[in-house]
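Continuing the series of single-chain predictions for the mutant panel. This is the parent chain; the variants come on the following pages.
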Amino acid sequence: MCVEIEIDGTRYQTVRQLSSVLATVIYKPDTSAEDRVPDNCLCFIDLERTAVANGFIFRSTEDYYHAIFLRR
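Parent structure:
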């Protein structure tokens, strides 16, 4: 299981879902072209940098598999 991101009460689990609501999605530097698939989980996304690039604050939660993007 991979982390899911919550934005304004809605949870996103795949790159495609997250890309549908964010202008910029940033992959981790070592992500191969084969892993840059829209239906992949969010394991390959640099969540902290993606949050900042879109004007959010990244917050982890007590649940390792759930994080939140808070509006600034």
